């Protein structure tokens, strides 16, 4: 049956039904009219790629790499070293403060002993013959003629002074084991009492070598230097490494 031009025109206006195309036909079809579907193998491959990408992304977001761990350990080590140094310095300064407080209390004790015995002779409390090294001997002791510890003891002012001087030395020794005493001057002009002690933290700028205190001289005018210098006779003239001195003038 012949087809009229109108019917032919209406048939040509309807698109052809869609049918899946193979990869070969899809590649040969112009892009404007290409309607392709992927094969099952291609779909599975795409799903696998998507899963792997998500897995890799998750691995990047969790945990730390070896380099990150090493950097963290390095930073932590530097911090711990700083804390250790700070702790050591703090302990050293604390020990120095404690020693100075002990020396100050010892000198105050000596002043009280001198003032409590006005009957002593002008030079009864002197100890300017035995230096620091001599006093470090295990059997060293200052001599006194009478034990004035009891009230019944018949002690003169000078006897009491000799006894008090030895008791004061022992008291200082108990508080500061590596210590010594030195007393010069007289009652009329004032006693110059000195406590010498060994300080292992008294080091030079290198932090290792023990330093030596300045020897007292008439040219020293600074009050702080006069209080911390060491009498020449007390340290053997040249000083003893690591030994500090604290001086106090006692006027009865």
Overview of the molecule:
This protein is mostly helical and about 250 residues long. The chain has a domain at about 85-250. The protein is built from 7 helices and 3 strands, in the order ααααααββαβ. Strands 1-2-3 form a 3-stranded antiparallel sheet. The radius of gyration is 48 Å and the shape is rod-shaped.
Please give a handful of descriptors for the protein shown:
252 residues; 7 helices; mainly alpha; three-stranded antiparallel sheet; 10% strand
Quick structural overview:
Residues 1-13 have a biased composition (Polar residues). Helices cover 46% and strands 10% of the residues.
Ordered list of secondary-structure elements with their pairings:
Layout: H1 5-12, H2 23-28, H3 40-61, H4 66-115, H5 132-135, H6 157-175, E1 179-186, E2 190-198, H7 223-228, E3 243-250
Helix pairs in contact: 4-6
Low-confidence stretches: 17-25
- Largest sheet features: 3 strands, antiparallel
- Looking at the chains present, what oligomeric state does this protein adopt? single chain
**SSE order:** HHHHHHEEHE
The helix count comes to 7
Beta-sheet strand percentage?
A: 5-15%
Class by helix and strand content? mainly alpha
Helix fraction by DSSP (H/I, runs of at least 4): 40-55%
Main sheet strand line-up = 1-2-3
Give the total of beta strands. Answer: 3
- Distance from first to last alpha carbon: 152 Å
Shape: rod-shaped
Q: What does the average pLDDT come to?
A: 81
As a whole number of angstroms, the C-alpha radius of gyration is 48 Å
Protein name: Type IV pilus modification protein PilV
Pfam family, one: N_methyl
Transmembrane segments: 64-86
Biased composition (Polar residues): 1-13
């Amino acid at each position: 049956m012949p087809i009229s031009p109108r019917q032919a025109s209406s048939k040509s206006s309807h698109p052809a039904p869609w049918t899946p195309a193979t990869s070969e036909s899809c590649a040969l079809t112009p892009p404007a009219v290409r309607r392709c579907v992927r094969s099952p193998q291609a779909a599975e491959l795409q799903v696998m790629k998507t899963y792997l990408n998500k897995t890799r992304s998750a691995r990047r977001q969790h945990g730390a790499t070896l380099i990150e761990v090493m950097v963290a350990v390095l930073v932590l080590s530097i911090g711990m070293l700083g804390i250790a140094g700070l702790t050591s310095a703090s302990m050293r300064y604390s020990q120095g403060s404690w020693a100075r407080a002990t020396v100050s209390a010892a000198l105050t004790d000596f002043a009280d002993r001198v003032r409590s015995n006005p009957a002593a002779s002008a030079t009864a409390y002197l100890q300017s013959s035995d230096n620091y090294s001599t006093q470090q001997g295990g059997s060293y002791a200052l001599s006194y003629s009478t034990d004035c510890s009891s009230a019944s003891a018949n002690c003169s002012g000078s006897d009491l002074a000799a006894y008090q001087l030895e008791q004061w030395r022992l008291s200082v020794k108990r508080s500061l084991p590596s210590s010594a005493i030195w007393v010069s001057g007289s009652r009329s002009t004032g006693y110059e009492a000195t406590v010498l002690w060994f300080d292992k933290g008294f080091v030079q700028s290198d932090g290792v070598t023990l330093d030596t205190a300045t020897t007292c001289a008439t040219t020293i005018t600074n009050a702080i230097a006069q209080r911390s210098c060491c009498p020449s006779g007390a340290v053997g003239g040249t000083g003893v490494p690591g030994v500090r001195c604290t001086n106090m003038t006692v006027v009865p």
